[in-house]
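Lab notebook: predicted structure, single chain.

Context: the supervisor wants predicted structures on file for every construct in the current expression panel, including those that have not yet been purified. This is the next one on the list. No modifications to the sequence; it matches the entry in the shared construct table.
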Amino acid sequence: MKNFEERLKELEEVGERIREGKISLDDAVKEFERGIRLAKGLEKDLARIERKVEVLVNEPDEPGEKPVLELFPELSEAAGAGSGAGPAADGSGDTDNATES
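Prediction complete. Output recorded below exactly as produced.
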């Protein structure tokens, strides 16, 4: 099996062959399908590597302490605050519904 860098280079070459336009439509579709398979595999590898890095970066300092499994917890908290989970998210704070009753 090829390593990540080799497969990424192969994906770039696939894209270049398609952009050049020197291949038939059938061959371009085959190359596109191949590129999609490569991209999905690379994406899975990146997710696996990201999880591994996350665990390594957030290893507990003390034995028995649970690791924090988020690289940027402050971003998750900020996103949760602005997620629309407030009173208007269920329509109960919607002033249009209040005027129709």
